[in-house]
Fold these 2 entries.
Entry 1:
Amino acid sequence: MCEEHEDERINIYCLRCEAPTCSLCKVFGAHKDCEVAPLPAVYQRQKSELSDGIAMLVAGNDRIQAIITQMEEICRTIEENGRRQKQHVGLRFDSLCSILEERKKELLQSIAREQEAKVQRVRGLIRQYGDHLEASSKLVETAIQAMEEPQMAVYLQHSKELLKK
């Protein structure tokens, strides 16, 4: 019912004001200079527009849901690829570390062998020079004793041999 004309039914639609109204409002009231249309026609047109809008929203929502589903699958793929890449990198580094550890072990063994060979060589030289030093020291001692020999004949008998030594 019309708010201004309580006994009148709303039966037309004011196109300019975009409001439903009664025939008395069109003839005598606020809408006398406005263009109007039959209420059922406007009702059907707006209902059709709203229905089309709902259909567009539903279709849009379906597309958005499909995109969300696709993006969720992309996220799962990214996570799986990341997990595989991390695992691959871990395995490669473990392999490289193993190779490096083996190489380190070989190099340390090589250095140890070389060190031992050089130490043995130097110790051999130490023994050789030690033996030479001992012999030389005995020779010096013997020569000093010979120098103290008071008899010339005895000295001369031993001095030639000492000089050779």
Entry 2:
Amino acid sequence: MDSADPQLARFLHQLQAETQRQKFTEQVHTLTGRCWDVCFSDYRPPSKMDGKTQTCIQNCVNRMIDASNFMVEHLSKMNGGSA
């Protein structure tokens, strides 16, 4: 196949985008697992959440959002888009 083939180029672009999405999803799962381990030391949520646990979860979620925004901006720049 010719490398200038537009269908091939489109396919390769879609493949790259899907690979990036998969890596992002794996990252989210990893971070979620880490936050769970940090915030719930006994691996199960308590019947009533105390202030310390609530703060831990809030901070963790905020860091995940920050990481997500960073990754979206980075992927957008890689694809030639604007953030």
